[in-house]
Amino acid sequence: MTRWIRRTLSGLRALVRRRADDTDLDDELQQYLAEIVEAKVAAGLDREEALRVARAELGSPAAIHDYVQDVGWEHRLVNVWDDVRYAARGLKASPGFTLAVLATLGLGIGVNTAMFSMLDAVVLRKLPVPRAEELFALYENAPQAAPDPVSGSGRYLRFSYPRYMRLQEALGPHGSLAATTGTNRFPARLPDGQRISVDLQLVSGNYFETLRVQPARGRALTLEDATDRAPAVAVVSETFWKHHFSATDAAIGQTLEINNVIVTIVGVAPSGFGGVWLDDSPDLWLPVTLQPAIQHRTNTSTYGAVDTTHSFLGQDRIAWLNIVGRTATDERRLAETLLQTENRLALADFALGAAENARERESMEGHTLALESLSHGFSRLRAKQSKTLLALMGLLSLILLLTAANVANLMLVRASRRRRETAVRVALGATTSRIVAQVLVESLLLALLGGAAGVLAAGWTRHALAKQLTGTASMLPVGFSLDLRTLLFALLASVTTAIVFGVAPALRAARAGSLVSAGLNERETVGLAALRGMRPFVVLQLALSVVIVFAATLLSRSLLNLVRVDTGFASEHLVTAQFFNARALAASGISLTAVEDRLVSAANSVPGVTSSAVSVCGLIAGCSYTTSVRIDHVDGTVPVYQNWVGQEYFATVGMRVVRGREFDEHDTARSMPVVVVTESIARHYLAGRDPIGIRLRGLAASQQYDAEIVGVVADVRPVTLRDAPAAMVFYPYSLRRADAMPTAIDIRVAGDPNRAVVGVRDALTRAEPRLTFNVTSMPMRLAQHIERDRAVAYLTSAFAGLSLLLASVGLYGVLSYLVGQRSREIGLRLALGAQRSNVIALVVKQGTALAIIGLALGLAVAPLATRSLQGMFFEVSPLDARMFVSVALVMLAIAALATIVPARRATRVDPIVALRCE
Amino acid sequence: MGGKDKPRDLVQGTLDMLILKTLTLEPLHGYGIGARITQISKGTFQVNAGSLFPAFRRLERDGLIAAEWRVTENNRRAKWYVLTPAGRARLKHDMRDWETQAAAIGQILKARLADL
User: Fold this and answer.
1) Is the Cβ of A86 closer than 8 Å to some Cβ of chain B?
2) In 3D, which of A888, A825, A882, A815 has the Cα closest to residue A856?
3) What's residue A478's pLDDT?
4) Residue A202: per-residue pLDDT
5) How close does chain B come to A412, measured CA to CA in Å?
């Protein structure tokens, strides 16, 4: 061991003292020579003769230098350094080649790095807590449950507080369970009186302890904080602390006013920790016991009759908490059994006592509790987009591979141009391994430079990429940054690329070396062998670009279909305003009906506005209230979307009334309840009957009254453009359910809606300064809505263009190389009277064969390969024959272009020059 | 560069041992070591510079010998090599090894069927 250390140290010392050691050895050799001379002279030779003999005996001092240098390990480093300098000189000597390769590699590695940092933040990275793999989430499998944006369909993620307490008790010492709400926005006041809004989560007292998160400052929340009469306290996020308290310790002990409750800051969460909801991190965490005080009422699921104005803490029928737990890995099974047993007992009790009818009871008893790993946290973005991200990442890796293949071909061509240089080096005694090492070092140098360019490119593009993919910047997870992991990825990508594109040229250089030393004509043998080596690369490139072009075509068609889709309303002259804090107004006792009247008359007074109407859900706003209704003459219940809309709503948004009438000033809270339904209800459930006059009633406790259908409107896409037109029931705004808050006002204008936006915003804000309005034109809203689809389609099209370019350059390269290698043969043929058309045919045949093989291969795998993008398709099919034809035509056109130039060059080969060339 | 066939006048791996042994008698400079080996072996081993210098460097780096510049009997500056305690220990170890191996090889070479 000590010997090993000694060798390392002496090697390092030798590296530093390289020059001094060299002179030292020179002196020593000089002295050695002198001693020999002395000895020879003593033996009777004359001095001149002695010197000659001594020189012969000593041998070449340069060789001795080499042998001595080879003693230590450090000479390898010196060799590599020499290779690097040699490679750098070579690259500098051909700037065109170098720039082309660096640009391609920089682009390839850059987009991959940007994509990886996104993928890492959303999909791969674990929660930044100790032993994240011990964490799990609880959810209830419920076959009839509505799709959940986070956990998929058929699952309930939310539990009531009493249930949480019982489950926690059932788990006992085998782990711990913590509860948290999602993130909700509340009005707040900073210590200096500034009014802001904050995003907060209510969490159980053991939340931080369960996650094992240590506060950066102050203390975490504790179980005592979540008891009845405990003072109101909060832990703030590091970002919030930096932004509002300049990251000073003075923040601890300061107070915030949240929805009229004074809360004292006791701690700051560590940097990078944003709770278990990755893309929805809060500014602060409060104990769950503050729910009634701050009036947290949103994001709940209720069963049966409940009073949401009372504290949630004692109510078993209000589910509002996500449960996350931690157990040692070997106790996970035990924990699961304990929790499931408790859950079965509780559900049986619950169903027996509470459910109103047999069916509901049965469905409730069908629920089962499940544990799922939460090592990566909850993420809506991941739930929605992990497939897209993975698919795009796959696509980009393919492009990187393509780039590498192309660079490999460029390197091969370059190496064939440098064969003379290689031959000289071999003749001078360079070993094969040195030559291979040299080529690999050159590849590595290129790849690392390309990687550096790529990291720069990633730095510039990743935010644009992320924004394109998520639609909003606010959804980005805390962990989204160009960090060490990302840089490591870029390094890995560079080195892998170097290996992929460097090995073939290196092996060829080795062969060239051995052949030259064997005295063979390298041009005839290795040149054509290299060509054979290049062909598979080109076929692979063509096939890959076929797949990418295929994907791009599908996505672009989807985008086109989304742009042209019939929304069911007239968007051209529509302005839409959203507001989200009506609940706070209502809570302070202000009549929302009065607010509605004020907003509508303010909007109508803006010049150019023809009508306006308030609604609970805006159009294509991701807002939905689903429920079931019973309709006269229809068996069972009918699942529907519902919305509450003001007078003249249908005229305002341009929904076509196909039967009956729309709501007017006579539809008040005191008149006979009426509804308007969409055509699909009439079509599916009331076939043959006149829907007008038929009555329906809701199942929700507050909607169990008869309402008469007075109108039918054309089908409309309720929540997003991708939804198929659905069954929908519109209630007059006056019948608004107490928990359904208005969030939108739509305004029809005579002229350009984009120009009306500012006027409308001013008028609305003047009329109701306590609300914040997000005003935009409907065409703009729709454009934003499909922004992600647009981004993916554009990105993929750009990638497709890039890959086509790369593939055609590859094809072009191979054919040019072919023409170059066979110029003597071509010259000979021409000299012997071959027609130019024959020569062209020779090249075209090669090109077409490669193109057709690549095309066939690509088309064979494309439908399968694009299946992972299925979620992004909209009304297109990968098996559409038109797809195959259009992709094939594009590819063949490109291949033809890439073939023509080398083919024409072949005809210009001058027989005389070609024959003299050797 | 060039072919790396180093002179193989000695049984592989014994040169280091011979150098160490030579230095047990007195400190010597490079030429002196080579000459001493030739002299003691009565001309059987001719060690050339191409083998000697890498060996010096190897032994020096492993701390088995140490070097210093001194003035020779001819009043010239020369690099003298001295055996270090570690070198002395190594030599002892190597000689024991060598004797065991040489004896064994001798036995094998002398072996006749009748003795088995």
Assistant:
1) no
2) A888
3) 55
4) 94
5) 26
Q: Does the beta carbon of B6 lie under 8 angstroms from any beta carbon of chain A?
A: yes
Residues A571-617: pLDDT tens digits? 889 999 988 777 777 777 788 888 888 999 999 999 999 999 999 98
* pLDDT bracket for residue A745 (50, 70, 90): very high
pLDDT digits (tens, 9 = 90+) for A152-168: 445 678 888 998 999 99
Q: What are the residues whose beta carbons fall under 8 Å from the beta carbon of A609, sequence distance 6 or more? A: A603, A747, A748, A749, A750, A756, A760
Decide if A27 and B54 are in contact by the 8 Å CB cutoff: no
Tell me the HSE value of A324 on the side-chain side, using a 13 A CA sphere: 27
Edge-to-edge strand order for the sheet containing B77-83? B28-29, B77-83, B65-71
H helices of A237-331, in order, are 238-245, 291-294
> Which of 46-85 (B) contact A at CB < 8 A?
48-50, 53-54, 57-58, 61-63, 72, 74, 76-79
pTM: 0.62
The structure tokens listed for A374 are: 């939460």
Contact yes or no for A172/A192 (Cβ under 8 A):
no
| φ, ψ for residue B10, nearest 5 deg | -110, 155
Give CA–CA dist A143/A130, Å, rounded.
34
Is B7 part of the contact surface with chain A (CB cutoff 8 Å)? no
B81: nearest CA partner in chain A: A28
Q: So what's the pLDDT on residue A147?
A: 46
Q: Which of B8, B28, B51, B53 to mutate to test the interface with A (most CBs of A within 10 A)?
A: B53
Nearest CA in chain B to A427: B2
**ipTM of this complex prediction, to 2 decimal places:** 0.83
Q: Tokens in use for A820?
A: 């170059």
